[in-house]
Specification:
CATH superfamily: START domain
Structural class: alpha+beta
Mean pLDDT: 94
Low-confidence stretches: none
Number of domains: 1
């Protein structure tokens, strides 16, 4: 697999964790590298909802459209994006755990042709940029 996986215990129920991770517009509250996130589609958030996110990557600002690919209340969120021929899938799984929630975040990358050779390098950059994602989420939710 090209990508990475992290897991964290958050001392809040799955409903509270899901409310934050299922709405990318809330990411600006706890992720410093995301400067803007807005919903592009009408209606409630669910499979097919799109967002535009602007973030700082390696010191440069970049925008990407995000697509909700999985939305199972209080248990699973999937979000995909594509940039420069590389597809990224963010998968969040929530499991009730003693006095809180276990969140497992998997980032998987895919590409075709010669771009596949770049995937290990892109995964390493993303892991460095986003490696503290769950710790920041934990601090944000537990301090709310």
């Amino acid at each position: 697999m090209n990508g990475f996986e992290f897991s964290e215990h958050i001392a809040r129920p799955p409903e509270e964790v899901f409310a934050v991770i299922s709405d990318p517009t809330r990411a600006t509250a706890f992720l410093d590298n995301i400067t803007e996130s807005r919903k592009l589609t009408e209606g409630p958030i669910g499979v097919g909802t799109t967002f535009r996110e602007t973030r700082v990557v390696s010191g440069k600002e970049a925008s990407a459209d995000l697509l909700v690919t999985a939305h199972e209340p209080n248990s699973h969120v999937g979000i995909s994006t594509e940039a420069e021929g590389i597809t990224v899938l963010y998968d969040y799984r929530l499991t009730p755990e003693s006095e809180g929630t276990r969140i497992t975040w998997t980032c998987s990358l895919g590409a075709r042709g010669l771009r596949r050779m770049m995937l290990p390098m892109v995964a390493a950059i993303m892991k460095k940029e986003d490696g503290d994602h769950l710790q920041r989420l934990k601090i944000h939710i537990e301090s709310s």
